[in-house]
């Protein structure tokens, strides 16, 4: 096979094939690359390198090998087919389809048709996909799977599930087909059925392949040996199953469950992750490490193929984090993806958001046009639901309700963006008016109810109405208050206080404190801020009412223990209260007890001690403000404040 000395050839060859048999492709590639350097046109080396690269998922390298083979051996149909497959896997669908079309061998006719169908399918050309499938063997399981994939692509998830089930009955248990069935259940929002399919995939994968180390990775134990992208891993469909499980947990708002599902998948290095996993890991850490998430999504966008949601998610997240210029840049740089991956309504929404930066009035008009369109759609769907109920058609009722829920989810961002224009101007009366106008459709939507509560809260004289919206939400999560946004708990506490219902406020504070203690006992290193934020908000409220003795003590209490609670964000809000107090004392507009002054000086000493290495601004803050000001530590600012209060006391 290789050009070696007599007697060594068979040993050399058996070594290569042994490495490939054991899926040690990297080692085989190292040897084969040396062979190719010595013999640049070695057919065997090129062929085996192409095979190894393909199974290592280095499809661009595989393309290079098979292109050389096709040029040297144009009559070998296998090389033409392998090149077409490698082109397809590397996302070069047009080239793959063209190359496959050149193959006229009857031996490969079915595989060529399926490859061409797959290429058209990935380009969303369903008509061409159907046309090619008509040339395939109709009873072939792969053809049936393709029929199911087309049904899925066109949104007919139950017929798609049935097709996949038919193929499963013919072939026997196949993890990838079970995953397809689970995906259909997910799309039909039948999460229980989807989870049962996923559980079967995971259970079988763990039982048959313990070497894949399922569940060995955690946030505390991230340094786990990679299992790499082996053929065995791909055959188990474990990666797909865990990604889908994470998506279901996310949809059910169990964000911890979603993170756990991603961490439980067989461990791999970041550079080894498939596009879907990289996308999901990017989303998972957006709240704690947005820069890392943006980096992952941008990498995917620049290196196709990538999940179709990548483009829209990147735009949404840039908008959510206030990076409107970056969002506009991504939109402009990827105009070719706009019509391919974004719906017209989504694009119009993003266009209005870009306009908002220069002309809020024009943006409001664009949002209003979109909102009118959505409301018309919701009215039509309401009529459909009523007609289905009159006809007593359970299937139509179910379909119409799902369509209504989906339409409502599409409408909510438009409504919130429209209301936010007045919100930013402090015109809460107008925001309330906008929400009242949409109560007919949105009154049961959780986000709508919470935002209505926020509007009542900020108007300053509607605390009782705010309680009516906050309280049911908090009670719903009574057993897991740490899953509720801290600001919601803080606002409810303030409402109780302002409504002279201090007992309820204290009870809620005790519940939060109890949950934080329980969580700390489970994970001593975890930093928890719910109680801190609630106390900060309550303390700030009392300070604003000129009750500094109580308010400033509550603010200081919020920072205990300092090594966990003291940080740039918490210090920012705490020091505002101290500065407000200092200014008020300097103007002789208030007085505080001597004991309170002693507590303040002691607190500032503690902040000095624990804040030596904590800067009061982050790099992101400086970028946003466009300043290069010298960064101060909390320790420095605490000493400045202490000097101020010592002067005031004397």
From TrEMBL:
It comes from Phytophthora fragariae. SUPFAM superfamilies: TPR-like. It is found in: Cell projection, Cilium. GO terms for biological process: intraciliary transport. It holds the Pfam family TPR_16. Keywords: Cell projection, Cilium, Cilium biogenesis/degradation, Repeat, TPR repeat. One of its GO terms (molecular function) is intraciliary transport particle B binding. SMART domains: TPR (SM00028). GO terms for cellular component: axonemal microtubule; intraciliary transport particle B. The keyword Zinc does not apply. This is Tetratricopeptide repeat protein. Belongs to the TTC30/dfy-1/fleer family. Its main location: other.
């Amino acid at each position: 096979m290789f050009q070696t000395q007599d007697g060594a050839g068979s040993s050399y060859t058996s070594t290569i094939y042994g490495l490939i048999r054991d899926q040690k492709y990297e080692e085989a590639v190292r040897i084969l690359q040396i062979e190719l350097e010595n013999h640049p046109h070695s057919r065997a080396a090129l062929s085996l390198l192409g095979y190894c690269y393909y199974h290592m998922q280095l499809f661009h390298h595989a393309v290079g090998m098979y292109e050389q083979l096709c040029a040297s051996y144009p009559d070998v149909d296998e090389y033409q087919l392998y090149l077409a497959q490698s082109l397809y896997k590397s996302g070069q669908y047009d080239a793959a389809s063209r190359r496959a079309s050149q193959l006229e061998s009857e031996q490969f006719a079915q595989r060529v048709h399926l490859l061409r169908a797959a290429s058209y399918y990935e380009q969303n050309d369903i008509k061409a996909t159907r046309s090619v499938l008509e040339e395939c063997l109709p009873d072939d399981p792969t053809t049936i799977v393709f029929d199911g994939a087309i049904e899925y692509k066109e949104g007919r998830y139950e017929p798609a599930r049935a097709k996949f089930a038919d193929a499963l009955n013919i072939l026997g248990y196949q993890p990838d087909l079970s995953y397809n069935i689970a995906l259909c259940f997910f799309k039909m929002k039948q999460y229980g059925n989807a989870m049962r399919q996923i559980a079967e995939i995971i259970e079988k994968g763990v039982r048959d392949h313990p070497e894949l180390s399922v569940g060995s990775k955690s946030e505390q134990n991230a340094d786990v040996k990679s299992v790499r992208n082996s053929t065995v891993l791909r055959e188990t469909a474990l990666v797909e199953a865990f990604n889908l499980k994470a998506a279901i947990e996310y949809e059910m708002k169990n964000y911890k469950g979603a993170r756990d599902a991603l961490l439980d998948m067989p461990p791999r290095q970041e550079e080894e992750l498939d596009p879907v996993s990289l996308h999901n890991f990017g989303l998972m850490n957006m709240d704690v490490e947005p820069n890392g998430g943006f980096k992952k999504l941008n990498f995917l966008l620049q290196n196709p193929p990538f999940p179709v949601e990548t483009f829209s998610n990147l735009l949404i997240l840039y908008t959510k984090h206030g990076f409107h210029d970056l969002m506009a840049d991504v939109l402009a740089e990827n105009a070719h993806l706009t019509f391919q991956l974004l719906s017209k309504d989504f694009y119009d929404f993003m266009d209005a958001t870009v306009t908002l930066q220069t002309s809020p009035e024009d943006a409001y008009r664009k949002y209003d046009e979109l909102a009118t369109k959505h409301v018309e759609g919701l009215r039509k769907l309401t009529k459909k639901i009523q007609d289905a109920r009159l006809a007593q058609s359970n299937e139509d009722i179910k379909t119409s309700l799902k369509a209504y829920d989906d339409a409502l989810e599409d409408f909510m961002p438009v409504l919130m963006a429209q209301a936010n224009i007045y919100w930013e101007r402090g015109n809460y009366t107008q925001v309330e008016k906008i929400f009242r106008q949409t109560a007919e459709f949105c009154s049961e939507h959780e986000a709508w109810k919470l935002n209505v509560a926020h509007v009542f809260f900020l108007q300053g004289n509607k605390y009782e109405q705010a309680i009516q919206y906050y309280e049911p939400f908090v009670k719903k999560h009574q057993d897991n208050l740490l899953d509720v946004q801290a600001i919601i708990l803080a606002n409810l506490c303030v409402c109780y206080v302002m409504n002279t219902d201090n007992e309820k406020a204290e009870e809620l504070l005790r519940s939060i404190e109890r949950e934080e203690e329980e969580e700390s006992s489970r994970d001593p290193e975890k930093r928890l801020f719910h109680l801190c934020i609630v106390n900060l908000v309550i303390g700030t409220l009392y300070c604003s009412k000129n009750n500094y003795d109580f308010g400033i003590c509550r603010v200081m209490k919020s920072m205990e223990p300092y090594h966990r609670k003291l940080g740039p964000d918490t210090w920012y809000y705490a020091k505002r209260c101290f500065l407000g107090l200092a200014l008020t004392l300097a103007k002789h507009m208030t007085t505080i007890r001597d004991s309170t002054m002693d507590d303040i000086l002691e607190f500032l000493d503690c902040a000095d001690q624990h804040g030596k290495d904590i800067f009061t601004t982050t790099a992101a803050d400086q970028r946003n403000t466009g300043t290069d000001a010298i960064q101060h530590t909390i320790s420095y600012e605490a000493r400045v404040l202490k000097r101020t209060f010592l002067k005031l006391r004397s």
